[in-house]
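Friendly challenge for the regulars: who can give me the structure tokens for this chain first? No prize, just bragging rights.
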Amino acid sequence: MPESGLLIRGLTTRAGSFELKDIDLEVAADKALVVLGPSGAGKTMLLHTIAGFRQAAGGQVYLNGRELTRLAPEHRGIGFVFQDAALFPHLSARENVAFGLRARGESRPDRVEELMTRFGVSGLAERSPRSLSGGERQRVALARALAFEPDLLLLDEPLSALDQPTREELRSVIQDLVSGLGIPVIHVTHDRDEAFSLADDLAVIVAGKLRQSGDAHRVAAAPGDAVVARLLGWAELGRGKATGGKVVIGEVSLDAGDHTGAVRVFYRPEEVLLAAVGSSSPAPPSVTARVQRITRTFPLARVLLGSDPPVTALMLRREIERFDLAVGKTMEVAMPADAVWIIGSAQN
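First reply, four minutes later:
Bragging rights claimed.
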């Protein structure tokens, strides 16, 4: 058992007919684990069980070598930031930050001021939470969670209720925070971009089951099954049969590697290559397809190509202008080998 960091073994908890079962996770003292999953997957339930707000039905939770499984929340040494900040409305911002210290019989005004300055809310010290914006409330909540110097920080979708500019601003704040905090951090989200920007390690939970966990870049590059692949932004090309080192889906022929038999093929839309017909790029193998639809968003535009099977490419808007793309235009389409992921029948 590690002497530092968080260790979870076989953790199980229930709410009615829903069960979060047999969760095994480990978070080193200087790492951030992001738990990614759709709404209702059990992410918040996991955090509540680790924090002691919900009783575990089975398994163990260890923090820095000490078992927490049956301890009351106030004895676990865990800082928690809720989705809605959950500040005490009758207390000022400063009093909210100091609350955890006061509950422990400590008075550390320098610590409170240091954290309020760190999170840019020192000028709001005497304000009521009701008068603060969503982003300001979450900054105060972060300061409150860290005031008593916890051994673990849990973040329960703290950005999900914020508008886009505020969410991006606070994402950077949290990114800077967790990189130098020196304690394990678990951040749960349903936002893939948020997960990739914050995670050292990534865990994917769907319907109460831990589908995959590990180094974030490795999980993203090698999803363990089709459910994880879709959550991580892989698009499905289709199903096929791998024989002789190749898999053919419609008019697309790809290297199947060591796979044999029934497979599902996924690809990264942002890695799809387009080129004018007859040009020297993209490198073969490629197919010819007409542009069926262009959806212009920021910063990427989505281009649907009428190949067999259809392929979607994500492109910078300036690339659309460079190619003078328009519905009906014919383009060469190719997918590099590292943009393709093949999942065998056992993982389907």
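The chain has a mean pLDDT of 93. The chain has two domains: 6-229, 235-348. Your move, everyone else.
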